[in-house]
Amino acid sequence: MILNFINGQYREGRGGRTFDDINPVDGSLVARVSEAAREDVDDAVRAARAALAGPWASLKLAQRCDLLYAVAAEIDRRAEDFISAEVADTGKPRSLAAHLDIPRGAANFRVFADAVRDVPTEAFTTHAPDGKPALNYALRRPKGVIAVICPWNLPLLLMTWKVGPALACGNTVVVKPSEETPATAALLGEVMNSVGVPHGVYNVVHGLGPESAGEFLSTHPDIDAITFTGETRTGAAIIKAAGAGIKPVSMELGGKNAAVVFADADLDVTIAGLTRSVFENTGQVCLGTERVYVQRGVFDEVVQRLAEAASRLKPGRPGDRETNFGPLISHEHQRKVLNYYGLAREEGATVVCGGGVPETGAALQGGAWIEPTIWTGLPHGSRVASEEIFGPCCVVIPFDKEAEALQMANDSRYGLAASVYTQNIDRVHSFAAALQVGIVWVNTWFLRDLRTAFGGSKASGIGREGGVHSLEFYTELSNVCIKLNGAEQ
Ligand code: NAD
Ligand code: 6OD
C-alpha cells in the first residue's frame, strides 16, 4: 500500500478509501494507494504550519542548504529505488528515467540550495522632507505553507522542481502527486526522514482532483500559495479556488508547441531534435512538439526522415535493452489520444505513419500502447493542429515565407515553447523575439539550464519558475525603511 506522508509518519487516510496504481505497460496492479480524506489534508497543512514556525525556521540558511544537498545525495544513492518506482508508475523506458527523471529530481535540490545562497536583495537611499537620509532595504522571508499539485508525466522531476526551491526559501510543503503516479513522492518521504529534514516540512497527500485531496488542498484556508503543473482546464479551477482565498499561484499549464524548420537548417540536427520533441516520453511532455512547420524546399525530406525515425521506436518492457518507447499513462489517456487519431482522419489528414495501437504481443496487451504518428495534409486551423493531444504525434505543414511560419506558430491559444531550426543567426534573433512563447529552443530541444526563466504565456500559464524566478515566487519581500536622524546629506 502506498501511504500518505504526514508530519514525518506514513499513514492511511482516515476514510479508509483506496485507489489503484496501475502499470500502463500491461495493466497490472502496482499498488493500492491510500486516499487522504479532508481531515488528513487538514493534518498535513497543520503539520506544515507547525514546522514552518518551529524546527525549520530555527535552521540557519547554510544548514537548510546542507540538508537539501543531503536530500539530493540520498536520491542519488537510492537512484535504483526511485527509477523502479517511476518506471512502474509510468511505464517509461528505464533508460529515460535513469537519464532524465531521477537525476533531475536530485539536481532540483542542489540548484535551488545554491541559488538561495546567492539571491540578491535591493537597497535604496532616499531623503525625508527634513533632508535627513533614509535607508531602504528588502528582507526576504518564506511565503509559508505551499500547496504543490503535480501531474503524472515527469512525476519526481516536476514535483521537486517546485519542492526544491520552496524548501530552499524556508517554506514547508504539502504535495498532492498525480493519482496516476504516487510512488516517488511517497518514497521521497523516506529520504527526508533519513537525512533529518524536520517532520512536517515535507508532507504528501494522495488522491484525485475534484472532491478529493486536490480540491481539499487547493481550497484549504491555511495554505499560503499554490504551485500547480497540469492541464489548463484544471489550472483554471485552481485559480478560481485561489482567487477566493486570495492565494498567489504559479501555473505551468498545457501547450501546443510549434517547431519551425527553415530550408537552411542542418537536417541531421533537425531530425534528432524533432524525434525527441515529438516522441520522447511517448509525447507526454508539456514542451513537446505537436505542430511542425517546414519550409517547402525541405518538406518531403523532413517528413520522410521523421517517419524513418518513428519506425525505429521500439515499444516494450521498460527494462529491455531495445525498448525506447513506452506506453501512454493510462487507458483513459489512450482513449483521448485515439480519439484525436480518428479526428485527424475525419479532418482529411494523410497518415504518414502510425495512427493506431501497435501489435505488442499477448503479454503487453493490457497496456496503454499507442503508435507514433505523423500527419500531413491538415490545415493549420484544424482541431488536430490546434488542440493539445499530449501524445506521440505531430502535424507537419509546409510554408513558403518566414512571415507565414511566424503567423501560424503564434496563432494558438497556448504560448509555452517553440523550437526553431535554421543556420541563419540573424533570423534566429528576430524570429525568437517575435514568437509569443515563454521558451524558445534553437537547433535543439529541452536543453535546460535551471537558472533560466521557465513558464508559458497565454493559456500555458502564469508566472515563471527557475533560478531567481522561483525564489521570487516562494518568498515574500518586506521593505524596511530606516530614517537616519544623525546625518544630513
Ligand atoms: P491534470 O490537470 O489532469 O492533473 C494535474 C494534477 O491536478 C493532478 O494531481 C490532479 O489530481 C490534480 N487535480 C485535478 N483536478 C483538480 C482540481 N479540481 N483541484 C485540484 N487539483 C486537481 O494534468 P495531468 O493530466 O496530470 O498532466 C498533463 C497536463 O499537464 C498536460 O496538459 C500538460 O501540458 C500539462 N503539463 C504542463 C507542464 C508545464 O510545465 N507547463 C508540465 C507538465 C505537464
Ligand atoms: O525541466 C523543467 O524544469 C520542467 N519544468 C519541465 C517540464 C516538462 C513538461 O512536461
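The pocket of 6OD (ligand 2) is lined by residues 153-154, 158, 161, 285-287, 448, 454 (CB under 6 Å).
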